[in-house]
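Changelog-adjacent note: as of this version, every example in the card shows the full chain rather than a window. The one below runs 151 residues end to end.
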Amino acid sequence: MAEKKGIVAEFKEFIARGNVVDMAVGVIMGGAFTPIVNSLVNDIVMPCVGMITGGIDFSDKKIVLQAAVAADEANGIAEVAEVAVRYGNLIQVILNFLIVSMCVFALIKGINQLRRKPDPEPEPEPPAEPEPTAEELLLTEIRDLLKEQKS
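Full-length structure tokens:
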């Protein structure tokens, strides 16, 4: 029973750490943020990209290694699925990733600019000490001569 209490206490300590709670909040906020990003990409950015590219969808691009064969029961041929390298799907996924990344970057940059505090104005430099007047220079010399005589 003592071992279980130790594990429970250790688990409570682990959960109570700030970075675990921060991570949980980040995951929850990320889940809530996902529909916003998806809507931005699918409803605003992708129609513009589709218009620019003429609606090209790379996901259909492929290199067929072996064509599909339809089943022919009369000749005893079983159906064979097509074997193909679907490189277009990889290109499409990479393009989608880059578009989503750019949108997230733009959103975060905008949010950071809203949160950013204006740079504090630099403190004015204190005025330089004025040059001593002729009278002050003379008094300084007299003081120094008196110090020398005492020594």
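Structural remarks: The radius of gyration is 38 Å.
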